Structures are given as C-alpha cells and as structure tokens.
Amino acid sequence: MTETVLAATEPFSFDMSLRALAAFAPCAGGHTIAGGRVRKAFLLGTEAVVADVGPAGGGPGVALTLHADRHLLPGERAAVHRAVARWLGLDDDLAAFLDVAGRDPAMATLLRAAHGLHQVRFSSLAEGAVYFALVQRSTQWFAAARKRRLAAAFGPSLTVDGVEHVAFPSLAMVAERDDAELIRFAGNRLRARRLREVVEGVAALDEEWLHTGPYEEVRKALLGVAGVGPFTAHALLLRVLGRPDGVPLGMAQLEDAARAVYGDPPPSPAELREAYGPSIGWWAYYVRTARSWQPDDAEIAVAA
C-alpha cells in the first residue's frame, strides 16, 4: 500500500468528481463510492491495482492510496498515478472555457452549481473503445452491462477489505478472444465483429499520440478505424481522451440540453462553436452533466 497526493488544476472540487462519477451510467458498477471516497481497479500489465481516492488535505487535488499484491516499482506507481489523473481529469485546464462561460448569462447558475467540476471519463482507452463499440445500435444500459460482464470474465481483480475490484482488460486482452467468446458479450455476430474491428483498429494506434497529437489528425486516424464513425470518434476524443476541441452539437441530446439552458430557440451549433472555440467539449460536458444540479425555481425562491 502506497500513499501520495495528486495535484489538480484549479478550480477543482473532488465532491463534484464524486457526484459526476455517481451519475456516469456507462461506467456504473466499475467503481465503488463510500464515505466521500472512491475505489477503482486499474490495469498494470496483467495485474489489478486498486486506487483509493479521497479529498486532499490542503490545496486542489486528491489523496491517493494504491493497493497491490506486491511492492510497486516507482515507474509502475507513476503509471497508475497518470491513469488516475486522466480518469478524474485532474490536469484539465478549464480556464478558457470558464472565461467564456462566465460571460454567458445563461450559464451563470450552472457554473455556480458545478464550481470545481472536472471531467470524469472512462478509466482507459480499452474501456472506452469497448463501450462505444457495444453501444452502437444498442442502448446505454445494455452496453454498460455487456462491458461489465466482459471485464468480469477477462480482467484481473484484487480484493480489498472484502470487496473484489476488477480492472478492465487491455485492448490486446479483448482482441485475443475468439469470435464465439466475443459473441457471448456482444449479443450478436454483427456487434461482435464491430467490437473486434474497433478494438484491433484502436490498438494499432499509438495511445500517447491519441492524447497529445494534433486534434484533427487524431480524429482522422480514429475515423480510419473500421467500425468508428463520426459519433464514436467524437466520443472517444472527449469522453475517453479528454480532448474538448470538437463535439457533434447536432445530436438530439445536446440540442435538448442547450434548449434547457438557453430557452427556445437555443443558440445554433455555429454560434456555440464560435463562442466556445476549442473549449466546446467542456461546454457540452457541463450542460449534460451538471444541468440537473441547478436549483429549481422553488429552491431559488426559498433561498431568496
């Protein structure tokens, strides 16, 4: 067991992270939240390491305790630290988004309700790629359930305080399964084929480059993977890789969210892109994640 503190870019609220994680349906069952802390297993090679994350004592960030079956080398601890930081979006710089949103009157109440929110995302590229392959022509609930069953079958686990925590398997671990096995988890032959295409195609790309390479080049590379269309590419870029440069604003979910925030008619996709620029993904995340956190009219009246 090792302990450390991971810093976060201000403003940051761990309470907001827990609230977002609790509502993150695609990853339901993949972590446990209790007592103001969260525990999740991460893959380290072929082993599971459990991260226990809580609020930092002072300054923005989180207190992290790692549980493992053996002593972890410094490089191994650093790898898990990096995975946790990406999972919780600790290094995300929201300054440009908050500057624009702070001058957007319709966003004022939402920003107050979600102060310090950073994006929480899929814990690994493999987990996100599998989910978005499974959710095509399916529902969020079924895709999340299939993803959990796949993890339980193929992912390593570690038991901490009597609770088993399963780490999501790597892209290679999923790709090595035969077609019959994948059909068991995908539900049908077509979805299993799509799952294999996406997993093998994404595995062939350099993961660090996906995180840091030029946005349009990365998007083009993802679109070159069989089974990955514009929706999946955008989803991987924002919800897995934490890249907010673009988002499909024409989606019904985002149109509905914009209408709820701005009224009818809401700003057009072109107007939103012009206003928020390369921070448009953070706008989409906030209006989708934190819109329900705003007090309703009755609460505002009581508070007044």
Automatic annotation (TrEMBL):
This is DNA-3-methyladenine glycosylase 2 family protein. InterPro entries: DNA_glycosylase (IPR011257), HhH-GPD_domain (IPR003265). It comes from the Bacteria. Coiled coil: none annotated. SMART domains: ENDO3c. GO terms for molecular function: catalytic activity. It comes from Phytohabitans houttuyneae. GO terms for biological process: base-excision repair. Residues 134-292 form the HhH-GPD domain.
